[in-house]
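Before any further analysis, backbone shapes were mapped to integers, which produced the following:

***
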Amino acid sequence: MNPIWLRRFVLFAILLLGLYYLKENPDLRKRIYSEAPIRVKIEGPVVNPGVYTLDAGSNGNDLIEIAGGTLPGAQIKTEDSTLEQPLEDGQVLNLGKR
């Protein structure tokens, strides 16, 4: 089998499997393609804890910034990988004790 045809076949198979996965997981599809704003709650050592409305695809660092940043002396790793992941509608981000 020619390597070009093999590459095309593998690419086509991956594409079909991806489309099948999106069909079987409508929640994932809705998160990927949703343009609607999300509402999330932030708790912990931030200047203004509470519920905020953000654009779809926003992450924890965006939420901390909108909430006024962290309190002086707060022990939060803002580089934490969980803060880099997109937030979901209705999610609560708890950063610890105030």
Observations:
- The chain has a mean pLDDT of 83.
- The longest strand covers residues 38-43.
- Strands lie at 38-43, 50-54, 92-94.
